Amino acid sequence: MWCVSRNLSTHFLHLKISDQYQNATSQSTISSSSPQTAVNGEENECDWVWNEIKDEPRLDAEFEPALAGHLYSTIISYSSLTCFLSFHLGNKLCSSTLLSTLLYDLFLKTFSSDPSLLSTTIVDLRAAC
């Protein structure tokens, strides 16, 4: 499982994990395969990384139904890594005078205007794990 998703889950979740969940995660296999190279390698790798990150919150939601709504609205519902990062950074940096929705739009436009930001982010995520 990806370190980032574990850190996000730890950040969001402060509840005791059930024995059933612990057994399921200890028996699960971690995908160590690399993304397949496609015509657009960066986009394919981004999708692969995002799917890997979402795997742990999906499992958490399955075994902890009380948290499912929160996990879906904060992680799983986002269709791409750029949308999720824009949401997460916007919420982290917002204030009473700088709304998270404004920051979300700003981050989304920034990721769209400079593809190297996403590439660098993916390299950092892979290096951290």
TrEMBL record:
GO terms for cellular component: cytoplasm. GO terms for molecular function: serine O-acetyltransferase activity. Transmembrane segments: none annotated. It comes from the Eukaryota. Pfam families: SATase_N. SMART domains: SATase_N (SM00971). Residues 49-128 form the Serine acetyltransferase N-terminal domain. GO terms for biological process: cysteine biosynthetic process from serine. PANTHER family: SERINE ACETYLTRANSFERASE. This is Serine acetyltransferase N-terminal domain-containing protein. It comes from Lactuca virosa.
